[in-house]
Structures are given as C-alpha cells and as structure tokens.
Design a protein that fits this description.
Helices cover 38% and strands 17% of the residues. It has 410 residues and is an alpha/beta fold. The protein has a 7-stranded mixed sheet with strand order 3-2-1-4-5-10-11, with helices on both faces. It has a 4-stranded parallel sheet with strand order 7-8-6-9, with helices on both faces. Helix 1 packs parallel to helix 12.
Amino acid sequence: MPDLARGAAVIGQSGGPTAVINQSLVGVVQGLRAAGAGAPGNPITRVLGMRHAVRGLTHDQLVDLTDIPDDRLERLAAAPSAGLGSTRDKPDAEYCQRIFAACEKHDIRYFFYVGGNDSSDTCRIVNELANKAGYELRCFHVPKTVDNDLVLSDHTPGFPSAARFVATACRADALDNASIPGIKINVIMGRHAGFLTAASALARQGDDTGPHLIYVPEVAFDTERFVQDVAKVYDRLGYCQIAVSEGIQDDKGESIGAALIKDGQADAHGNVQLSGSGALGDALSDLLKSKLKPAGGKPPRVRADTFGYLQRCWPDASPVDAIEARGVGRFAAALATSGDVDGSVAIGRVASPESGQPYAATYRRVELSDIAAKTRHMPPEFIDGTNNVSDAFIRYCEPLTGPIVPLERL
C-alpha cells in the first residue's frame, strides 16, 4: 500500500436520490474495506457516513460504517433513495470552510461525495481549502444523477434506472390512453438535459403507439407548432401521447415551466422546483383544449401527469445501473487508496453503440475542475426534428435500461 495519511474516511450522498445511489455508498465502503480500512495498523482508521450530506457533517451528525455487517450492506444497496439522507444545500466558500473544519475536527483524511455536478464542485472547493492549509485530504466525487447531465461520461449512475421507469410507465400509459382515446401529456424530469424524456421513446411498440411526440429542452418549444403537431397525430389516430421535459424552453432560452409556476418554491440553487408542480402539464392541457376545440363543439379529452419524484427511486433498478453504481464507488475508493489525492469517476463505453459489439463499460479518473458545475446536453445526433429522438439515441439507451417488458393489445 502506498504511503497514506492516517485518519478517517467519510462518505455523503447529496442531491436528488436515485434507485441505485446506495449501490455507490456500498461500493465505497467495500472498496475501503478491501484496502483494510478499520483494521489494526491500517492508515484508514474508520469509515463514517454523513447524515444528510455535508449539513450533517458540519453538525457532527455521523454514523460509523466501519463494521456494518455485509448482509445489511447488501440490503441497503438494493434499496432506493439515500440511505444516509441527502440535502439540497449548495455550499458556498464559507460553507465549504465549515466542511473543511469538520474534517479537521474528526481527523478525516478521505472525503467521498456521491452526487451531481454541484457535488463535484463542493469536492473541488474543499480539496482546494485543504491544499491551501497543507492538510492532506483526499477528495473524490462519485457520480450520480437521473438527468444524465455530467460531462465527460457516456452516462451517469441513476439515469438508466430512471429511464427504465419512464419507458415502462409510458408503455403502460400508452395503452391506457388508447383504450379511452384522448390526448395524454406526461411531464418528465430534466431541467436542462432531455435524456430522461428521450428515454420515453423506448416505450414504443410500433408506429401507432406512444409517445407520438417527444419534446426536450435542447429544442426551442413553440406553442403554435406544438398545437399543430398534436392535431396531426390526433386527427390520424384519434388519440395522442406526449412526453415533454419539465425544462422545455422558448426560443429565448426561458423556461416555460418556471414562467407558469407562480410564486414557486426555489431550491438552494435558485431553481424553481418544476417537479413539485403540475403547472406545466395543466397549462399545456388548457392550451390544447382551447386551440383544438371545434366550433360549437366540445374540446378534446386532455389529461396530464407529472411523473415527479417517482421516476427517481422506483424499486426496479436497471441491472446495468446497479452494477455500475457500485462500480464507480469501488473505483473511487481504489483511487484514494492507491495514491491519487482527488478526482471524479467517469463511465465510458468499450465500443460505440454503432459498432454492433456487446455493451461494456470502463471507469476512469477525471479532474474535478473539468466537471464541476458544468452541464451536459443531448447531442444533436440524438434529436430528430422538433418532436422526436433519433435511432442513434435508441441504440445508445437500450443497453442501459435493459429490456422493457412488451405489452399485448388487440
């Protein structure tokens, strides 16, 4: 083992939970144990967990994970949501100084943070504070987000399971909507990136099954064009299913949902909480009812659902996602115990989706500064026109979610 600083390791889970975030927690614990953490004479003296992420760390709310039984760890790994609790706090420089002070207080030398791009920024700032103070603190970001918007990765743990939920829910909902014909709008998570909404395309079982229209933030949303799109499908089939991202924007880049949610609650990042409101679905429903109402007749039957938090933690994880979420945790622990002092973990593919080769993933270390506070968007080759996704996206996404159960209809 390389020369390592003697002290404790600490792990936190930040931001929105996922179906596999506990796999990453367990991966870090297992990786540290594999390096002898907690054993007599080992430089890693204890493995601690933060209650509700850095908020708990700064309030001395820690749980000792050093000797937690393996069978309990496995049960925790299979459970959705954040086993340690999470937070939406976005630490500024002063907050990060308190995090660093807590690390000094508890003799913490290994800091692991499971989260999205803001969590990686927290790791970066805390690491810089430790370096400035001459205090050895190995800071590692473990990736997580259902939005799939971390740069430098092919995909992010949490996304495949959420995508699996979206595809499965839309497949069942398409049959429901065709049974009592009407127009159905499903509002899906994704403030800046449309990957999760795009995954609804995996629900399709032929040309006439939904979703018939898919709208993502990367394409400017035009309400008049939207009405015309729906009218074409509805006139042809007598029903229409629509998948729309909560983060759709107009041609000026303004969030349509945020504009519709009056006095909406904002999180620590200043974002209006789109997933906690049905305002976007209701507004689009009202628009269609008013625009598609025939003269002297009744408006069409229009309904809207906001999938909200269900898509994050549905307990039917993608098998690939479960394996990789644990894998990035173990990889981060291996980096920290092999001489690296900071970084994040990125997932890559062994071969491109176009190669025809079986799917396989790789892990690699990337610099915190290269991903911190940055956002990845769907590439143009994944988008088809203004209301659809391409075959390239389908080839990209299918290996991640696993098979979506086919549903029979007459």
